[in-house]
Request: fold
Amino acid sequence: MIRNRKYLGIASAAFLAALVAGGAAAEAAGVLTIGRREDGTTFDPIKTSQNVDYWVFSNVYDVLIRVSKDGTKLVPGLAESWTVSDDGVVYTLKLRDAKFSDGSPVTAADAAFSLLRARDNPGSLIADNYKVIKTAEAKDDHTLVITLNQPATPFLASLALPGVAVLPQKIVTAMGEDAFAEKPIGSGAFTMEEWSRGNKVVLKKNPNFWQADQVSLDGVEWLSVPDDNTRMLKVQAGELDTAIFVPFAKVAELEKDPNLTMHKDPSTREDHLLINHSHAPLDKLEVREAIDYAIDKKVIVDTVTFGIGSVANSYVPKGALYYTADNGARPYDPEKAKALLEKAAAGPIALTYLVQIGDTVDEQVSVLIQQQLAKVGITVNLQKVDPSQTWDMEVAGDYDLAMNYWTNDIIDPDQKTTFVLGYDANLNYYTRYKNDAVVALVAKARVETDPAKREAMYVDLQKMAKADVNWIDLYYSPYLTVSRKNIEGFGQTPLGRFYLEDVKKN
Reply:
């Protein structure tokens, strides 16, 4: 779903040699090591919306319905089948025989508990997506009946969200949710054996996983290596089996390494510039429009992504359901920007741009935007902060501009649309943007059952968001990961999911 970018730098040959000399760590039989940028925040599925969490615990927990590996359709998960009533209100799901990692059975009562917890828990960041649930009841251990307040087209797709993974009700209740989040029990391919904060998450094969016979790995270690260049060098040296968030500038070099496989997996990733609408003069439409006109997205794509990315023109990823390019996206036009600023009569404008220290992509984009906005008379002050602080500052609204990214977690546009336009618990991705007509249309689109009408609504939503400059779309890009040649089956689905149960280490 959400967050972080970085990218590159070139270390010395001496440093690389040192890494090679210490490269035995990745050789542990059956244990896959993955280098990532930062540590996670929680194993409580409803209390996060960050990829750094979702991508790890998707292999610890399981969901009722999964998304196919090509990202195009829904397939059975813990629910092996389901039916929907003719009026689109009652969903009956039949659960397979499955167990949690402690050996206890996964029941329909656990599934009902997990869904209602997502809907009702005060700490749930995904509550708005599940308010449509009227009741969720276990008719028996294997039969879950969900009744909605009204038909909701994306509801089945929303059951694939990692945030509504099925948790063991008795254990969560007995331990308390905070303690459970530290020592989770799930029904996924792996169990969480150790979490060394800021360092690593150690996963162990779950022998009780319902597909355990297809899991070849003994375990997985997610290792935090904040520096992008160091992370890549560790893979090259054999200290890591794999790494994610490959720097754009390193792609060509890694592709030439005979010991590595460079992956460019199709994605739903979109990088964008957040705008804090609660801070003057960003509350003025003309100022936001001027900023959009003043930013040359093509220059950013060419300079920062080395042409690997492409200019984004909508919050809906290109190729995703209901995407439209015909939404009023603004071209680069600094003269138009100047005219709008004059019309806004906002006087001298100085903005604070939140930049993550050490995040080279963030830093490069911020400098380009600083230079481009300076040409139209807007002063941008770059505030560099530790990556561990940026999210909290965005949540608190302690910023004017900040770059971030999003990846879809379900195949329906409702999830992202609700999160960034529907004014849910996340204050529209903490931009504080609000348009009551947009909010109403988001809710209406969720329950529209006619595909053509629903598509028209999402086209309108993309146009309305663009007209209001809810944020500034920058670029789309593939998932960039790298693995050693002896690793098979590593990579990401379009929704970002790592199917580590399919990975083999030869």
Remarks:
- The mean pLDDT is 92.
- The first helix runs from residue 13 to 21.
